[in-house]
Amino acid sequence: MNLSAQLRELLNTWFASFIENEGLAHIFATAVMVVFWVILAYLVTLFIKLIIFRPRKADRKLGRKDTKEKQTVRRLINSLIRFFFLFWIAIMILNELGLDLVPLLAGAGVVAFAVGFGAQELIKDVIAGMFLILEHTFKIGDYVEISGQAGTVVDVGLRRLKLQNWKGEVITINNGDIKIVNNGSLNPSIAIVEFKMDYPFDLKEFESPDFKAFLKKFKDKNPEVLEMPEKVILMDVNDGLLFRVMIKTQTRKHIGIEREFRKQLYKYVQTKNLPIIVPVVVVDGENA
Fold it and tell me: Residue 256's pLDDT is what?
C-alpha cells in the first residue's frame, strides 16, 4: 500500500469514527484528499519556481541580472516541470474520485501522438533554441552570419531568432534551420589596409622613427585600436610597391579604423612628400 492509500485509509477510519454513514465518511475523506493534492501542487510548483528563478549568490553580490536568453530557458524549464507535475496531480485527483484512468491515459496518448506529429517543426525549433541558448553559441548584440544572412542579433527566442542587417531590415530565422553559425563577435577584429607606393621608394621609410611615431599617435587617438603592427608588409612589386598594414581592433570596429587609417596615412605621405599611387577614375565627359 502506497503513502496516498495509507493516508486515504486513515482518513476513512477517522471520519467513520464519528460519522455513522459509511458513504458520507468516504465522501469527506475523498474531499480532504483532493484538497491535499491541490495544496501539494501549489506548494511544490511555488518551490520549483523559487529554485529556478533564484539568482546565484555570486550574481547577487555583483548585482548582475539574467540575460533575456537565460530568462527564456528558466521559464521553459519551469513550465515543463510544472506541466508534468500538474499532470501527475490531476491523475491522482481523478484516481481519488474513482474514475477509470486506463481509457483516459490511452486517449491522452493518442492526442499527444497526434499533436507531436503535427508540431514536428515547432518541437525541432524549440529544442534547437534551447541548445543555442545553453551552449552560448551567440548572444544579443553579436554580429553573425547564418544561412547566408548576416546581421546583428536583436532577439533570441525558443523558436526563432532575429537579425538586423546594415540596411535596418529585420530577418527572422527558425532555430531548427540553423546549421552553421559564423560569429564575428567572439574575437578581436583585424583592419587591413593596402596601398601602393611608386618607384623609386626607400623601404626604410616605414622603419623610420617618424613613421613609428605616426603609428603610435594613431593608436593613441583611436581607443578602438588594440594593437598596431610592428612593421609594414611588402605584398607585391608589380606596377608599384604594394604594402599591407594589419591593425588589431575591438570586435567589429575594423571598418571604421580602416577608413580612418587610410585618411591619416594619406596626410602623412603628403607631409613627407612620398610617392604614393592614387587610383585615377576616368569619367566619360559625355556621360558625366
Answer: 92
What's the pLDDT tens digit per position in 241-267? 899 999 999 888 898 999 999 999 999
- Domains in the chain, please, with CATH? 3-118 (1.10.287), 138-183 (2.30.30.60), 189-277 (3.30.70.100)
For position 280, what pLDDT does the model report? 47
- Note the helical H segments in the chain: 3-16, 22-53, 57-62, 68-96, 101-118, 120-134, 209-221, 254-272
- Angle in degrees, 0-180, between the axes of helices 22-53 and 68-96, rounded to the nearest 10: 170
Helix axes 254-272, 209-221, angle to 10 degrees: 140
Give the integer Cα–Cα distance in Å for 70 and 75: 9
pLDDT number for residue 61: 60
Contact between 185 and 144 under an 8 Å Cβ cutoff? The reply is yes
Between helix 101-118 and helix 120-134 the angle, nearest 10°, is: 80
The CB density around residue 51, as the number of other CB atoms within 10 Å, is 10
Distance CA 287, CA 285 (A): 5
pLDDT at 41 over 90: no
| C-alpha torsion sign, points 215, 221, 224, 226 | positive
The residues that bridge with 195 in the sheet, in sequence order, are 243
The overall average pLDDT reported for the chain is 80
Determine the Cα–Cα distance for residues 157 and 72; give it in Å rounded to an integer: 7
